[in-house]
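Final report, section 2: Outcomes. Of the targets proposed, Cytochrome P450 18a1 is the one most frequently requested by collaborating groups, and we therefore present its record in full.
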Amino acid sequence: KGLPPGPWGLPVFGYLTFIGREKHTQYMKLAKKYGSLFCAKLGAQLTVVISDYKIIREAFKTEDFTGRPHSPLLKTLGGFGIINSEGQLWKEQRRFLHEKLRHFGMTVLGNKKQLMENRIMTEVTELLAALNDEANESTDLSKYLSVSVSNVICNIIMSVRFSLEDPKFKRFNWLIEEGMRLFGEIHTIDYIPQIQYLPGNINAKNKIAKNRQEMFDFYREVIDEHKKTFDASNIRDIVDAYLDEIEKAKAEGRDNELFDGKDHGKGLLGTAFAA
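The predicted structure is given below as tokens.
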């Protein structure tokens, strides 16, 4: 009662069996039939789908729609970082990251813009030099562009720069790609939780958790190294800004409100790196 219109589904599975791998194309078809706001039963989850950007912007003006589903896959990841946290924690982390990214040059106005331009030009120079070495050969640009873009972000976040052949960089990209592949394979468990206990799904969930821990171990190393050289009068990157914010929050008695738990700093780094 009071719900927008939508398609009928099958018992237990709902409309899941009709969606297929490319959800967005099926949702576009449903939007044309039922309107820009419709609902569908996906497994055990009654889902409302918004396909109009104006309605989406209006919905996200308030915090009513910032919650995260308590699903098996998100439980595996934990409520860390901007993507998986919610409520006041999400609000504070979003404010922090947005403010600090602007401070370190991610802006179109002011003197800080030059900082970003310098970082980008450094990577452009390296990119052109690498391509020049293969001037007479066919070249896959994706691997060069990937490391160039990542280096701009990683420099701002944690003062880390990777080379194209860096095994750690290759490993991280592989972990991210495999994570997305595994999510795609078992995303149905978020709608029908009972099937998460099937052997194949258990193995995939365990692999996702293992990969996540491997990434977190690296972020832990980065944070620990920054702690050793931290100087509040010389904030070098987002990790330094994070450590500085933690100290201020502790002094004001609001550390639990800001970054509640030891894994939220690593989750914040993971959000930015994966993006």
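The beta strands are 37-42, 45-50.
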